[in-house]
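ingest -> validate -> predict -> emit
validate: passed (alphabet ok, no gaps, 218 aa)
predict: started
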Amino acid sequence: MTNKRPPQLIAFSIILAGILLARTPAMAHVIPTCGIRSQERPSHVRLRPLDSLPPLHSLREDDITSVTPSDEDETIQVTLRTGDTLTYYHIDWDLEDQYPSTAMELKETIRHLERTFIKVATPPQFAGGDKEWDRYLNDFCLKHSREIKENGPADIRVQFIVHMKGEVAGLSVLSDGGHPELTGLAMQAIRDSPLWRPAFRDGNKVVCYKVQHVILSL
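emit:
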């Protein structure tokens, strides 16, 4: 014999299901942003979806009608002939002046805005810390053992700039440790290294100088 639910119970179940469904929030649609956390931008600024913001070096000079920098927000607004206005934050325009294809007006604007810090609360460092740096440098020295045997060992101090995404630039030798013939190899060790962890100032990523001892030995 089949048990049948009373009509009142069925109606009550339908009403209860409707109430629960109405109170359940819809799943938010997540839009990828341009690779920067919200705390790295001013709180009043709206994030722009990644696929709507072309890199600065991809914009043709003939397509640009105006470029407006902001020292306060460290932003660059680019107005195109199409009428679109694109807003680039520091992490978006950092190092874009290094591309040969970047329009000259954009290069000049970036060089006007860019600031490189010397002292910060959290300096840049090799990803993984000193132990990973020692492991990386040991492998590097083994790959270049012939040059080091002939001219080393040497402790060479190299200064460079760590940018907001971890790229290095502006390398120079501060001291060659009495082995000038190995300075090129020391700078190569920095250039070939993985992305570094950028510096932080007031909770935000910044461009900062870094001085690193490069000990070339076997």
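Residues 38-113 form one domain.
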